[in-house]
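tool_call: predict_structure(chain=1)
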Amino acid sequence: MAVFPRMAAILPEGELGAASVRHRALENQAAREASYVAGQYIPTAPGIYALLFVTNELGSSTCMMSDLGYERSTCLEVVKRAHGHVLTAGLGLGMILHPILKNPSVASVTVVEKCQDVIGLISPSLPSTPKLAIHAGDIFMWTPPPDVRYDVIWFDIWPDIDATRLPEMAELHGRFARYLNHNNSGCWMESWHRQESESIRARTATRSQAIVSKPGS
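tool_result:
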């Protein structure tokens, strides 16, 4: 999607502590295979893509974000809704920040990122602007100043689409509801893939109920 830059052109491959950026070239067949996410087909064009990996204390590496088609598609709404004062949890590749910071209706963007190495690796590629403030911290523990209100709040800290993430999303929505600018009729708060995760949970519950209800079970 043209609203987002090609992150491989902005972010070179590299590593800093626990964080690393890798490039992945996808040709036609590989791009098609990368387009199926949780049963949905979201097109990914052939090309070179950037992937962010973070290694935990046990030495296990997880892909936290890419700029494949599904990431672009599922991050588009926050870019469209961004205005006023924006709070995001999770820096990732910084993909959404490029269009958001260009938006003249955005006054400020506050990013909370847990991994200091991700900040060190990604932040040099971000636009240099006084609109942007990045804080190193865990969003579950980080608290804004009491008098601050945000017009848009976006949580994107999960590496996968899974219904087990829903309690964490509910906790964050509950904690930060007080910091949403409810005087603004256009205020908005959402978590990445929350609705899709709820659909997965509903389908799983329906299948489980069907199994229990089968005669003779």
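agent: The longest strand covers residues 47-55. Proceeding to next step.
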